[in-house]
Amino acid sequence: MIENHSDNIVNPETVLEDSPQEESSDSFNKENTNTDKISEVNSNVNAKEVEGTSNNPKEALNTVARLEQLEKEHQTLKDQYVRIAADFDNFRKRQSRDQDDLKVQLICKSLSAILPIVDNFERARQQLKPESDEAQTLHRSYQGLYKQLVEVLKQQGVAPMRVIGQQFDPNLHEAVLREPSEKEKEDIIIEELQRGYHLDGKVLRHALVKVSMGPGPSNIPQVEIEKDKVEEDLTSDENLTNEK
User: Fold this and answer.
1) Which pLDDT score, from 0 to 100, does residue 232 have?
2) Alpha carbon distance 199, 158 (integer Å)
3) What pLDDT digit, counting tens, does each position of 16-67 carry?
4) DSSP string computed for 168-203
């Protein structure tokens, strides 16, 4: 009987252990509820503060002024960038043009130093008249070198001027002599003293030329001139007599 009664008695430790768990869960839920309420209150307060700030006219004006200042600075920097880019592009083009001009000047200088050699070859070709077989062989070798030199000049864009019978042009020709000519009009080139050359359409060397002055004065004998004067005087005297 005593054992059965003891079984029906509830263990107080078990009751004590179960009840604190329920209380802790309830307190945790209460704390979460309080935290949510506090966060809601803080968010409402922050929203009100933002609204109050946005409704402040001074701060709004300051913001607008700051925005306008930043826009002006942005536009200024943009204009500076555009100018710098344009200046750099112009500098790049100018450098490229200067390099091309320098290259042409160097080529012209080198080719101008070769042209006197070509002149000497041409003079020698005009003066030499080979008669023997050995002289003819040497002459052919010389002609081969001359043709090779001329071919190199052609590859570089060098072309000789054709000036005989052309109108004198100071941009292309240099007049060394002027003399009367019965065949050609005035300022017509009648002789080439030194050949001129072009380089890709530009003047590499001016041609030295002789220019016509046109027909000269007629050579009338002095006796005929005096005879004409006497006849004019006699004619004038007869006219005076007839008038009287």
Assistant:
1) 60
2) 5
3) 344 444 444 444 444 445 545 544 544 454 444 444 444 577 787 888 888 8
4) P-TTTEEEEEEE--SSS-EEEEEEEEE--EEETTEE
Query: Could you tell me which residues are beta bridge partners of residue 80?
Result: none
* Strands of the sheet with 202-205, listed across from one edge: 158-160, 197-199, 202-205
Q: Provide the residue ranges of all domains of the chain, joining segments of one domain with +.
A: 158-216
Strand order in the sheet with 207-213: 173-179, 207-213, 186-194
Q: Scanning the structure block, which residue is given the tokens 């880019």?
A: 85
C-alpha radius of gyration, the chain, whole number: 57
Residue of higher predicted confidence among 164 and 239: 164
Strands (E), the chain: 158-160, 173-179, 186-194, 197-199, 202-205, 207-213
According to DSSP, the β-strands at 197-199 and 202-205 are antiparallel
Q: Which fold has domain 158-216?
A: Nucleotide Exchange Factor Grpe; Chain A, domain 2 (2.30.22)
- Pairwise CA distance, residues 107 & 96, whole Å: 17
